[in-house]
């Protein structure tokens, strides 16, 4: 049984959904572009016996408020939404987090804030880079160039080229319309080798895709041109999709410089692995949440491990 509530933050009404074990540890699932909380429909049942499972539609998507201003999609605002949700659903207990694509980018932002130490028990990131780390990685390869480094930067640039078109309103709409012309299931099959039978097309998909391009416009240029020193103290697991054509695996090679407690696991999957490889994602997430580094940190903070 799923219950729904609305959490209000910065004037945004965020649709929040909860299911699973009411006595379990809370885990928050954050979707990316152009999905809604329904992205997790294959993973939620695999977590529900053990966890209180909370998901939400991020601003601009699904049943949540759609701001018109591009500035409302800055990472600082999106991280603020994340904290508003977890403070509402679990005010006295840190949460585990599983996030994908732009959801992962948003949680990377949240994980870099000082309050993360008390509010995030563990963070599993799938196919969503920390934009500051990505910029630092690129600069390090260009500052002391090697043939391998140059090839990697060019490969990631080529993989991310579509984001350039998303910065141009008319062109972005044309590109989205062209990409989705055959339907969302067909696009995911072509782009990420997802079985179309596993895919449900949300009624808000088209508008979510168009509105969601504001995330790209509000954040990519500022973060890639002026990267910050973002050190992460919470335990992080990278689930790296080795066949992801949008987020190339090697760009994570420097992540250990920024994350104090890092675990990396690779799966042979494309970008939309939460749909195509739900069982692997769920298994790795549960294992990481129960791993010694996560448990030890939680014990040391005198948090009830349940």
* Biggest β-sheet: strands ordered side by side in the sheet: 1-2-4-3-5-6-7-8
Tell me, what's the shape?
Answer: globular
* SSE order: EEEHEHEHHEHHHHHHEEHHH
* Low-confidence sequence ranges: 302-306
Instruction: Give the class from helix and strand content and strand pairing.
Output: alpha/beta
Describe it for me?
With 306 residues, this protein is an alpha/beta fold. The chain has 13 helices and eight strands. The protein has helices spanning 44-47, 75-89, 102-111, 116-119, 131-143, 147-159, 162-165, 169-179, 184-192, 205-225, 273-276, 278-289, 292-300; strands at 3-9, 12-20, 25-30, 51-56, 95-100, 120-126, 236-241, 262-267. An eight-stranded mixed beta sheet has the order 1-2-4-3-5-6-7-8, with helices on both faces. Strand 3 (25-30), helix 1 (44-47) and strand 4 form a beta-alpha-beta unit. Helix 2 packs across helix 3 and helix 5 crosses helix 10. The longest helix has 21 residues, at 205-225. The radius of gyration is 18 Å and the shape is globular. The protein starts with a strand and ends in a 6-residue tail after the last helix. Mean pLDDT is 91; it is low at 302-306.
Blueprint (SSEs and pairs):
Layout: E1 3-9, E2 12-20, E3 25-30, H1 44-47, E4 51-56, H2 75-89, E5 95-100, H3 102-111, H4 116-119, E6 120-126, H5 131-143, H6 147-159, H7 162-165, H8 169-179, H9 184-192, H10 205-225, E7 236-241, E8 262-267, H11 273-276, H12 278-289, H13 292-300
């Amino acid at each position: 049984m799923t219950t729904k509530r609305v959490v209000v933050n910065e004037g945004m009404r965020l649709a929040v959904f909860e299911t699973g074990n009411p006595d379990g540890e809370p885990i928050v699932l954050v979707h990316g572009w152009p999905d809604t909380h329904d992205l997790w429909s294959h993973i939620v049942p695999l977590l529900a016996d053990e966890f209180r499972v909370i998901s939400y539609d991020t601003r601009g998507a699904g049943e949540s408020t759609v701001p018109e201003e591009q500035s409302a999609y800055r990472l600082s605002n999106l991280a603020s939404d994340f904290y508003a949700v977890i403070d509402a659903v679990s005010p006295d207990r840190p949460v585990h987090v599983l996030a994908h694509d732009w959801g992962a980018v948003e949680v990377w932002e949240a994980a870099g804030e000082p309050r993360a130490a008390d509010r995030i028990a563990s963070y599993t990131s799938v196919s969503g880079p920390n934009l500051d780390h990505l910029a630092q990685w690129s600069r390090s390869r260009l500052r002391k160039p090697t043939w391998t480094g140059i090839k990697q930067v060019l490969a990631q640039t080529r993989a991310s080229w579509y984001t350039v078109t998303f910065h141009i309103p008319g062109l972005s709409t044309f590109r989205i319309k062209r990409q989705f012309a055959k339907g969302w299931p067909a696009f995911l099959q072509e782009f990420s080798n997802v079985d179309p039978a596993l895919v449900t097309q949300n009624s808000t998909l088209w508008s979510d895709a168009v509105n969601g391009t504001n995330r790209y416009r509000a954040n990519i240029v500022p973060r890639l041109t002026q990267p910050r020193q973002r050190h992460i103290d919470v335990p992080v697991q990278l689930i790296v999709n080795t066949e992801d054509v949008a987020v190339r695996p090697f760009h994570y090679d420097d992540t250990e410089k920024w994350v104090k407690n890092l675990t990396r696991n690779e799966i042979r999957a494309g970008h939309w692995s939460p749909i195509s490889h739900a069982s692997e994602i769920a298994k790795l997430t549960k294992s990481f949440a129960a791993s010694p580094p996560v448990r030890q940190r939680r014990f040391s903070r005198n948090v009830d491990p349940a």
